[in-house]
Write a structure and sequence with these properties.
The protein is an alpha+beta fold. It has helices at 3-7, 30-41, and strands at residues 10-15, 21-27, 48-53. 14% of the residues are buried.
C-alpha cells in the first residue's frame, strides 16, 4: 500500500449508461467524497455516482 492509498482512501466512482465504471477522484474523507458525488449526481445526467473506500490491499470495496 502506498502513501496516497493511506491518505486518500475514499473514491468517487461513476457508472455510465453502458455499465462502464470510472474512478472520478480520490479523497481523504468520506464526507469530502460524498460531497463531490452528490454534486455530480445533481447535474441531472444519467450516470450513477457513489463512494467506495479502498481496502487494506488497495482495492475498492462494494459500493453503496
Amino acid at each position: 500500500m502506498n502513501d496516497s492509498t493511506v491518505t486518500l482512501p475514499w473514491l468517487v466512482i461513476r457508472e455510465d449508461d453502458n455499465g462502464n465504471r470510472y474512478r472520478v477522484g480520490r479523497y481523504a474523507t468520506r464526507a469530502e467524497a460524498q460531497k463531490i458525488a452528490d454534486s455530480l449526481d445533481g447535474r441531472g445526467h444519467k450516470q450513477l455516482y457513489w463512494v467506495e473506500r479502498l481496502g487494506q490491499n488497495g482495492s475498492a470495496g462494494a459500493h453503496g
